[in-house]
Every structure is written in structure tokens, then in C-alpha cells.
Write a structure and sequence with these properties.
- One of its GO terms (molecular function) is metal ion binding.
- By secondary structure, the chain is of the alpha/beta class.
- It has two domains: 278 residues, Zn peptidases (Aminopeptidase); 114 residues, Alpha-Beta Plaits (2-Layer Sandwich).
- Helices cover 33% and strands 23% of the residues.
- The strands form three sheets. Strands 1, 2, 3, 5, 6, 7, 12, 13 and 14 form a nine-stranded mixed β-sheet that branches.
- A hairpin with a 5-residue loop joins strand 1 and strand 2.
- The longest helix has 22 residues.
- It is globular, with a radius of gyration of 22 Å.
- Bound molecules: (2S)-amino(hydroxy)ethanoic acid and manganese (II) ion (MN) (2 copies).
- One manganese (II) ion (MN) binds next to loops.
Length: 397
């Protein structure tokens, strides 16, 4: 709730977008809490924060635990934040209990998980995992033309540590489900075995601005109509691959966006996802063909840029078992689940054994300011996270 006061939304949630002043303020609060818990803060060139609790064997690779503090423009208070503060709570509990672990433990705040202000999502963890190029993402611009790298520097959170050199023994991320399954089934804990794959295709349609009154219909090159038909196409294609595939267009820009001018240009982003790589590729191919047909019929030009992508993820069996055993031991109801949303864990799984703990959220709602959880759900998630992390970090004495 303290963190939620920083970058408040307009309807009870948060607008603490990556590398804004509000993000910087949230980072300072997190740093103060980490230092009060005796942690030493590291900061890399993507602004990712690493708060370290020493192990009895400081040379062992640490167990990392965390998520992200940046939010959507109309985000909730728990997406990402629960996982970062859940990690801090693990450390506070170890301090309270006087427990030492062989491996150090590092609480992590990954920069720009959301990809809302600067695409792609999971940006810093993607650079850390070696799948995104740091110099390239520094140049990515937001809708006001500001560059990611310059904004990171401006808020004073660009570190000097090279990205990706840290050795990770294991990474655990606690996150709300952001979907309805756990709540509908009355289950406390999601043992995340897989993450579905994702593609973001940014489409630019170029037609011709003209008068909406005096231009005969057959002579129009309407980029707004083109966008509408592509949005319908994406929905229809996703519906062909039920029950798992999903597809939508959330970002849409219309130029010149005037009541009585036919839209000459539209820019929008297609978000398609599936747990199966073949389905994701099939949807991608059908959408590209469909765009070509739609634009041909409307005499408009198009450009398609892939601005985000990761294949379906299978999390580490050992780490998943640690999560499942903890839920079992603690007597929480649990079930295996595939993550519908992308997470930093999806990239870190490529460079270290990784798993996630999920807790339900009210009405499965997220990426909405009304996002809510119960204290019981948060406590259960943090409890399971604690046991999985501490078991993996190996208690001493
Ligand atoms: O888009 C996602 O899945 C994540 O919430 N950034
Ligand atoms: Mn998230
Ligand atoms: Mn999110």
C-alpha cells in the first residue's frame, strides 16, 4: 500500500510506468526498505536492482527472487509489486527468524517488465538473458519520442554493472495469476509449469487523408477501415485455436484522428499468444496473409514489424518441484498452471533454473486499476515463495 501511493492511477490503481519520475520514486522507497533489511544494493546498466543478503558461503551463486515495480498506465497495485515485495518479505522473515543460508539471496526489481511505455515487454530481463540488444533497446522511443536509455539516465537509475554477468543459482518469481482459473477453482497456489509464447506485431497502414463528406466511397483509401478489419481478423483467427490461443489489439493510433477526415494512417499492435509454438506461428502466418488481402482490397499500403516475441517456456522441473512441495507441506490447495501473461521469469529461465508461484486475484482481473487480492492469498503466495527460496538457498545450522 505504501508503494501504491507512488504513481497513483485515476481509479485506485497505479500509473508508475517504467523510467518515469514515479518509477524513480518507487525505486528509492524499495532501496530504503532493502537497506533497512541489511541488504546491499547492486544496479546494472539497464537499471535492474539487485538487493543482496549474504550467504555463509559468499562465493556460491545466489538464489534470486523478485519481479518488477513498473506498472501499466492503468495498472493494478499488485502486478509485479507482489513479487518484489514478496522477495523482500522472504529476507525480512529470515532476519526475524535469525536463519542463515549457504547461498546468498538477491531480491530483484527488473526494469521495464510491462513494455507499455517502451516495447518490448520484459526488456531488462531480456537483455540480461542475452535475447535483446542493450544498445538497441536504449534507442527505443515512447509515444512522445523520448528514448529509453536517456530516460533511465535522467531518473538517475542507470547503474554501471554490466548486464547479464551475474551467476544465478535459481530464480523464483511470485505473481498474481492475472486470470480467473485459481479463483474459480478455489485454489490458493498456482504451480507454474509453463509460460505461453507471445508475439507483438506492430502494423502501420497507409491510406489517404480525404474529406469524409465529399469523397465518393469507391475512391477512398481508408486506413481506419483497414485497421478495423485487421482487428476483426485477429479475433477470428484466435477463435480458431481455442481453448488456449488468444489474440487482440490493445494499442491503436489513428492519424489525423479528426471527425471529418478519412484516416490516412493507422498504427496498432497485434498481441497473439499460445502455449504451442506451432499455433503461434500458424496464427502469425495467417494474420500476415490476411493483412495483405485486406490492404489489397482497400488499396492501402502496410508495414509489419515484430516488436516482441518469445517462444513458449517450460520452467525448471527442480524449481517447480520446490514450489509444489512447499505448497503441499504448508497445506495449501494447489494446481499446475500455464502462465497466460509474460514475466521476467520467462526470460531468466533461459539462463538459470527458474520457476514461478502464482496466487489468485479477484475476478481474475489485471491490467485494470480494480486489480485486487486478499491478504490470505498474498500470505499463501509469500509463504510458498519463502519455503521454495530457503530450501534452494540451503539453511545453515
Ligand atoms: O504482457 C504481458 O504479458 C506482461 O503483463 N507484461
Ligand atoms: Mn507483471
Ligand atoms: Mn503486467
Amino acid at each position: 500500500m505504501e508503494m501504491a501511493k507512488i504513481g497513483p492511477g485515476i481509479a485506485g490503481g497505479n500509473n508508475r510506468q517504467t523510467v518515469t519520475d514515479e518509477d524513480g520514486e518507487g525505486r528509492h522507497l524499495f532501496k530504503r526498505w532493502c537497506e533497512a533489511a541489511g541488504l546491499e544494493m547492486g544496479l546494472d546498466e539497464m537499471g535492474t536492482m539487485f538487493a543482496r543478503r549474504e550467504g555463509t558461503d559468499p562465493d556460491l551463486p545466489p538464489v534470486y527472487v523478485g519481479s518488477h515495480l513498473d506498472t501499466q498506465p492503468t495498472g493494478g497495485k499488485y502486478d509485479g509489486v507482489l513479487g518484489v515485495l514478496g522477495g523482500l518479505e522472504v529476507v525480512r522473515s529470515l532476519n526475524d527468524l535469525g536463519i542463515k543460508t549457504k547461498h546468498p539471496i538477491v531480491v530483484t526489481n527488473w526494469t521495464n517488465e510491462e513494455g507499455a511505455r517502451f516495447a518490448p515487454a520484459m526488456m531488462a530481463s531480456g537483455v540480461f538473458a542475452g535475447v535483446l540488444d542493450q544498445a538497441d533497446v536504449y534507442e527505443h522511443v515512447d509515444k512522445n519520442g523520448k528514448k529509453f536509455g536517456e530516460e533511465l539516465e535522467r531518473i538517475g537509475w542507470k547503474g554501471t554493472e554490466k548486464v547479464g554477468e551475474r551467476k544465478i543459482h535459481a530464480f523464483f518469481e511470485l505473481h498474481i495469476e492475472q486470470g480467473p482459473i485459481l479463483e474459480d477453482e478455489g485454489i490458493d497456489i498456482g504451480v507454474v509449469t509453463h509460460g505461453q509464447g507471445l508475439k507483438w506485431l506492430q502494423v502501420t497502414l497507409a491510406g489517404k487523408e480525404a474529406h469524409t463528406g465529399s469523397t465518393p466511397m469507391p475512391k477512398r483509401r481508408n486506413a481506419g477501415l483497414g485497421m478495423a478489419r485487421v482487428i476483426e481478423l485477429v479475433h477470428e483467427i484466435a477463435m480458431d485455436y481455442q481453448p488456449d490461443a488468444v489474440g487482440a489489439v490493445g494499442h491503436m493510433e489513428v492519424y489525423p484522428n479528426s471527425r471529418n477526415i478519412i484516416a490516412g494512417r493507422t498504427v496498432f499492435t497485434i498481441d497473439i499468444r499460445s502455449p504451442e509454438k506451432e499455433v503461434l506461428d500458424a496464427m502469425d502466418g495467417r494474420i500476415r496473409e490476411g493483412i495483405d488481402t485486406i490492404c489489397d482490397a482497400l488499396d492501402i499500403k502496410y508495414k509489419i514489424e515484430q516488436v516482441g516475441h518469445f517462444d513458449p517456456v517450460t520452467f525448471d522441473k527442480g524449481c517447480v518441484k520446490a514450489v509444489r512441495d512447499a505448497a503441499e507441506r504448508l497445506g495449501y490447495t494447489h494446481r499446475n498452471i500455464v502462465s497466460g501473461a509474460g514475466h521476467d521469469a520467462c526470460w531468466i529461465n533461459r539462463v538459470a533454473p527458474t520457476a514461478m508461484v502464482m496466487c489468485p486475484c479477484v475476478d481474475g482481473l489485471s491490467h485494470n486499476e480494480a486489480e485486487e487480492i486478499t491478504k490470505e492469498w498474498a500470505a499463501a503466495g509469500a509463504d510458498v515463495l519463502f519455503h521454495a527460496v530457503v530450501e534452494t538457498a540451503e539453511i545453515v545450522g
